[in-house]
Amino acid sequence: MSTLVKRSLSGLVFLVLMIAGLLLHPFGYAALMTACVGIMVIEFYRMSLGSWNRTGQIFGFLSSVMLMLATYVMARYGTWTAKYFLLSLPLPVTAAWISVLFNKSEDAYRSAAFLFLPLVYIAVPFSMFNFLVFNSLGMFQGMYLLVLFILLWVSDVGGYLIGMGFGQKNGHKMCPAISPKKSWEGFAGSLVFSLAAALVLFKLEMLPFSWYHCVILALIISVFGVIGDLTESAMKRYFGVKDAGKIMPGHGGLLDRFDGALIAMPVAIVYVLFILLRG
What we know:
By secondary structure, this protein is mainly α. It contains 11 helices and 2 strands, in the order αααααααββαααα.
C-alpha cells in the first residue's frame, strides 16, 4: 500500500472519529478526547524520556487523564459533582514528584521537567475543550469545537498546498532551523484558506457570530496553529525524532496531528468564551 493511500485512509478514519465524537454523544466525546490525551502523553514520554522513571511516567499519565476527566465532569455536571476528581488530582502529581526524589540518575531534576510538561502542553489545552462543548446548563454543544477544528484543518491544507506549490523552490523560508519546509508563502495560504472557510461557515450559520468575529477566529487559529506546528517541530528536532508516534500511518502520532491545536485552540476558546459568549 502506497504512502499516499495509507495517509488518506488514516486521515479519513481520524476525521470520522473526530466528527462522530464531537456530534453524537457527550460520553463518546469524553472517551475520544480522554483517549487522545492519554495517547499523546505516552507519545511525548517515549519521545522525551524513553525508559527513564517509568513509575513517574505512570503517575504523570494519570495526572493528565484525571485533569481531563475532572474538567469534563465539572463542565457537564458542576464543580461540586467533580469534587472527588479535583481533590484526588494532587495525589498522582505528588507521587510523580516522589518518584523523582528517589531517582538515582544525575539529571533527575532536568528530566523531571519533561515528566510534568504534558500536564501543561497536552492536558490543559484539551481540558479547556470541555468548557466550550458544554454550556452553563451542562448541555452538549460539540459543534462549537468542531467548527474550530474545521478552521484549523482547512488552514493546514491551505498551508500545505500553497507551501508545496510556491514555497518550496523559490519561496521564503519561515524558520529553516526548526522546520525547513515551512515558508511564508505557505503561511499566507493558511491565512487565506482559513479566512475563506470562516466566511463559508458564517454563511452556513455554523459559526453563530458576527462575520468580523469569524474572521478574527480564523486569524487566531491560523497564526497560533503555525506556532503550535513550529513548537512540536522544535521538540522533535531537540529529541532527534522524525515523528512523535506511529498510530496514524502516513501522519505519525496523535501529537503530530494535534500539534497546532495544542496552541491555537486554547487561544480561540478564550476568545469565544470571554469575548463572544460572556453575556
